[in-house]
Amino acid sequence: MSAAxxxxxxxxxxxxxxxxxxLLGLVAAVVLAWAVTAADAQRKVKPPNANLVTELTQRCxxxxxxxxxxxxxASPSTPSSSRVFIAGVGEVDGAKFAALRRAGDAMCxxxxxxxxxxxxGSTCKIARALYPLPAASAxxxx
Length: 142
What we know:
Layout: H1 3-43, H2 50-66, H3 70-73, E1 83-86, E2 90-93, H4 94-103, H5 107-117, H6 122-130, H7 135-141
Antiparallel strand pairs: 1-2
């Protein structure tokens, strides 16, 4: 009769260890997710000068008004393209480029928002390649 309580105690400890392991795993996942989010937030780079973003947005608007915007005039890429080559610009992130094209007339405001948020982000890099800043402004960017 004494074996039954010992087995019961052993099962209770097994359940406790299992529950503890699951909880520890959940806590570790939450901490990891928080750390990754914090690291992503720290990687974002603000523009060196707010006027650069304004100038970039104005160049975008001017190209759109003239009908000479490379993004809008480029031939559409295949949906599965991870990289897109734009004549005069080079290779860019396909998904970000497609998102800019889909924005249509709102593209310049998308550029403005993206560049104010993360100067080194893909969308802003594409915009800076599409609408190069004059040499005097570009010198302050590098």
